[in-house]
Design a protein that fits this description.
Radius of gyration: 21 Å
CATH topology: Arginase, Chain A
Strand order of the largest sheet: 2-1-3-8-7-4-5-6
Structural class: alpha/beta
CATH class: Alpha Beta
Number of strands: 8
Helix content: 25-40%
Order of helices and strands: HHEHEHEHEHEHEHEHEHH
Shape: globular
Length: about 325
Amino acid sequence: MKSKIKDRKSTVESPQSRLKRDKPAIRMPHFLEYDPESTGNPDAPYAVLPVPYERTVSFGRGTANAPRAILDASKEIERFDEELLLAPGLRVQTLPEIDCRHDSEEKTLAALLEAARAVTARHRFLMTFGGEHTITAPLVDAARASWDSLCVLHIDAHLDLRDEFRGSRLSHACVMRRVLELDVPAVHVGIRSLCEEEYRLVVERDISVFWARDIVGTGDDSWIEKIVARLARHVYISLDADGLDPAVMPGTGTPEPGGLSWHAITSLLRRVCAERTVVAADLVEVAPIPGTPVCEYTAARLAAKLMTYHVLHSDRHSS
């Protein structure tokens, strides 16, 4: 009799369980203002992929909160560009968020690779919001399957070329080493922090590095021409938030002083889109600061700027 009573009680659903079951799923925000013809359209020329991956951050935390915060902030962006004096008419699909909590690092990154390939295989432009920088390697892997003569324009305070960091080869501090192993060259821009191991690798392999000290305060744009000259025909752009100066982007895991200004980084992106075929990009390592939207809004504006420059040269993208 006791066992029957126990079984009967176990089938009774508690109010707490019922509330949890009936709670509606939280919808992922969309990028920019709602556009019924593009927001959920798998044929839109641009796609945004939120990836709240945060497994190996080594100092400040919060990058897992960035994708949703950036999408929310993007709704406040004017659709008219103040620099180019036009409305670019961006058509952007917002993809479902990658689940970064329940599987191993390897399985999560494999799922990311599959999701990215579904977009890049159709030569659609994929903009990915991280999360930490680790996500760049599978994204580049997806892009190289669809585009030949591919290189990476890596804008960052750090080289991220360590072979291992704190026991992990999947650390954010190793991501460009993993990209190098994909046989995809990279041009590193805005660098102002590195370890001895990375410096030796740069010298041994003649890796292209443009130091922040040679960019900031130069007074001319000759550095942009030198960077573009090093880029291959097809370019994947990886934007680490700490590539910007902390005065512009204070919310990031390791804010290094002496970074690029807003106008320096947008001038570079505009020239690259004009002279090369940019095929995809990511924006990583934003860590939203409670109480102010400055970081996520700046990130959303930067992503929209890049897409605007890209759409202006759409004739190049079919090559």
